[in-house]
Amino acid sequence: MNKLKYVFFASLALALLALPILAQGAADNESTVSASKALGAGIGFGLAAGLAGIGQGLVGSRAAEGAARNPGASGNVMTLMIIALALIESLVLFALLIVFVKL
Q1: pTM beyond 0.70
Q2: Which CATH number fits domain 36-103: 1.20.20.10, 3.40.50.300, 3.40.50.720, 2.60.40.3140?
Q3: In this structure, what are the phi and psi dihedrals at residue 26, rounded to the nearest 5 degrees?
């Protein structure tokens, strides 16, 4: 918990020290906005895909654990796992769609 506080306050300090960078003139506003859109879309989609990968891994491991504990229900568990994986993957595809619409 103590390390988490240090990381949080260090990130906050870096963010506050970077505020003068955001002061810009009106000359390069269009290119800065388009660059920020691309950067934000890339980070957002990367975050969505990464977290979906973690979620899919958890779903797979829990399904394997459930099938190992009760082999009689493995067909039911497999069906529910495939539905859950499809729903998680659809969220990633929606994130990709949002990236393409915004760019």
Answers
A1: no
A2: 1.20.20.10
A3: -85, -5
